[in-house]
Amino acid sequence: MKQLKLTLVAFLSMLFLTASAQSKKELALNKALENFRIGLIDANESLLLSVTSPKLTYGHSAGLVEDQKTFVTNIVNGKSDFVSIDIVDQSIDMDQNIAYVRHTFNAVTSTDPKVAPIKLKILLVWEFQDNSWKLRARQAVKILI
């Protein structure tokens, strides 16, 4: 009986630790997602570099695909300028060190002198490496407004 209790306690402890670790990963992913959104709006180079992988493949809805350096440079130099970004209908599917994030991306862009709303469906692939989440891939699809 004592052996059964010890086994049960060990099993429940493992479940708790696994759930706790998962929660920490989920919290870290949510923070990375928000930092990515803020980095886009603020054109913050260091923030964008901190949440993206050097192996990033960043797909735009028009078919253009950029690597990390090109993507960050285009945001910082204003080629892609976001006035506001609102994320809705977000779902997250985590599988160990990979997370698939889907959402609707409602934004206002500014390409001087034109300010325009855009609505996209986005798929983000995040990888957990060195205790932080890095955006590894992004693909957008246009939704006609």
Give a quick set of tags describing it.
single chain, alpha+beta, 3 helices, six-stranded mixed β-sheet, Nuclear Transport Factor 2, Chain: A
Description:
By secondary structure, the chain is of the alpha+beta class. It has a single domain (2-142), classed as Nuclear Transport Factor 2, Chain: A, CATH 3.10.450. Helix content is 39%, strand content 46%. The chain has three helices and six strands; from the N terminus they run ααββαββββ. A six-stranded mixed sheet has the order 2-1-6-5-4-3. Strand 5 (114-129) and strand 6 (132-142) form a beta hairpin. Helix 1 packs antiparallel against helix 2 (45-51). The model has no long low-confidence stretch (mean pLDDT 88).
Describe, in short, the structure shown.
The protein has about 140 residues and is an alpha+beta fold. Helix content is about 40%, strand content about 45%. It has helices at about 1-40, 45-50, 70-75; strands at about 50-60, 65, 80-95, 100-110, 115-130, 130-140.
Q: How much helix is in the residues?
A: 25-40%
Structural class: alpha+beta
| Counted beta strands | 6
CATH class: Alpha Beta
Straight-line distance between termini: 65 Å
The number of helical runs is: 3
Shape: globular
What's the helix-strand series?
HHEEHEEEE
CA-based gyration radius: 19 Å
Tally of separate domains: 1
Give me the secondary-structure topology:
Elements: H1 2-42, H2 45-51, E1 52-59, E2 65-67, H3 68-76, E3 82-95, E4 98-111, E5 114-129, E6 132-142
Parallel strand pairs: 1-6
Antiparallel strand pairs: 1-2, 3-4, 4-5, 5-6
